[in-house]
């Protein structure tokens, strides 16, 4: 696809459960077809994934191809595919977040939208602060990070 999202934006979710896609990302979202897919982050509580549809379709197909005989695969399928919903920005660049997903993730009025390369992560403000306060130590760094220049 080529579109890369990056950056952290504090956002407000209005009383109708809508958030405005930041202006800096609207052109990139439009280039991706203006179709987004919202679903749970299966690895972190307090967070939703927001994929451009072309990226989502690849993820969905990979997840659905996993054997359903393993419970971890079924959990991934449930949280990613089963809960996925299509959202399209309105004329003001807002997307609606279903009440069930807002409730499950603790998303209230204040949230944080992170550009994470090929998708966005939508965090409750509290969960995002908890993640940012965590630090990595030597024991957390595996061999796959050796040589990484930060």
Summarize the structure.
The protein is an alpha+beta fold and 150 residues long.
Low confidence ranges = none
Q: What do the pLDDT scores average to? A: 91
Question: What is the structural class?
Answer: alpha+beta
- Compute the gyration radius: what is it? 16 Å
Percentage of residues assigned to helices: 25-40%
Q: SSE order, as H and E?
A: EEHEEHHEEHEEH
Shape label: globular
**How many E strands?**
8
Task: Report how far apart the termini are.
Answer: 26 Å
| Tally of contiguous helical segments | 5
Tell me the strand percentage band.
25-35%
Instruction: Summarize the biggest pleated sheet.
Output: 6 strands, antiparallel
Strand order of the largest sheet: 1-7-8-4-3-5
Characterization of this structure:
The chain is of the alpha+beta class and 150 residues long. It has helices spanning 23-31, 53-64, 71-82, 99-105, 125-133, and strands at 5-12, 18-20, 36-40, 47-52, 85-87, 94-96, 110-117, 120-124. A six-stranded antiparallel beta sheet has the order 1-7-8-4-3-5, sandwiched between helices. Strands 2-6 form a two-stranded antiparallel ribbon. Strand 3 (36-40) and strand 4 (47-52) form a beta hairpin. The longest helix has 12 residues, at 53-64. The model has no long low-confidence stretch (mean pLDDT 91).
């Amino acid at each position: 696809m080529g579109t890369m999202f990056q950056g952290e934006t504090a956002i407000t979710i209005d009383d109708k459960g809508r958030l405005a896609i930041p202006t800096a990302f609207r052109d990139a979202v439009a280039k991706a077809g203006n179709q987004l897919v919202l679903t749970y982050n299966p690895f972190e509580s307090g967070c939703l994934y927001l994929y451009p549809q072309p990226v989502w379709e690849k993820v969905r197909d990979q997840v659905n191809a996993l054997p359903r005989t393993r419970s971890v695969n079924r959990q991934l399928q449930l949280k990613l595919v089963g809960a996925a919903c299509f959202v399209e920005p309105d004329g003001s660049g807002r997307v609606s977040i279903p009440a069930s997903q807002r409730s499950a993730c603790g998303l209230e009025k204040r949230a944080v939208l992170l550009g994470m390369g090929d998708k966005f992560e939508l965090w409750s403000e509290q969960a995002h602060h908890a993640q940012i306060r965590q630090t990595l130590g030597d024991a957390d760094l595996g061999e796959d990070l050796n040589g990484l220049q930060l």
